[in-house]
Design a protein that fits this description.
Length: 101
């Protein structure tokens, strides 16, 4: 998680990144992120936490690509935000699963 902390510190809060829809890399990344997001939630809906965790891992891979390959720290920040969101969905899933048991 040190990579996440480094990127989080390098992007000022007042300068929150956003998708640059005129940038082809951002468009491609946005499509990949949407695909991972929907597959992650579908895995949770189907009760397959292991698969959801794998999709979160794919998102982590996209974040590392943004950070280390394209050096696009704004995109890496957006990926971190989505990773946090996916983790929150997994936590909610686990809480609901325990409550139902």
């Amino acid at each position: 998680m040190t990579h996440l902390n480094t990127v989080a510190q390098s992007v000022p809060a007042a300068n929150t990144p956003a998708f640059d829809l005129s940038n082809p890399q951002h468009l491609a990344m946005r499509k990949l992120m949407a695909d991972i997001y929907s597959r992650h939630l579908l895995a949770l809906e189907n009760g397959v936490l292991v698969t959801a965790v794998r999709y979160r891992g794919a998102m982590y891979g996209l974040m590392r690509c943004a950070m280390q390959v394209t050096k696009d720290y704004g995109m890496a920040w957006l990926c971190i935000e989505m990773i946090n969101s996916l983790e929150a969905f997994e936590e909610l899933y686990e809480i609901q699963a325990r409550a139902a048991a």
